[in-house]
Amino acid sequence: MSGRPLDVLEEALDTPVTVRLKDGTGLFGVLAGYDQHMNVVLEPTDVDGSTDDEVEDTTIIRGDNVVRINA
To answer: Which residues, if any, are the signal sequence (predicted)?
Structure first.
């Protein structure tokens, strides 16, 4: 795995991820897309077991709110 952020996001496409936001909120869903500003699109997932909030609909998160993305 490359250390470049956009390469890591590319490898994580269509897999469940947790996105941690500046306010401490964690959102869990399938990474459906991203752009060069690290804006991300999450889709609902069928995977259970996350302690974070699962997205219920397609969710777009502005990149400047993202602190961490865990695949």
So the answer is: none
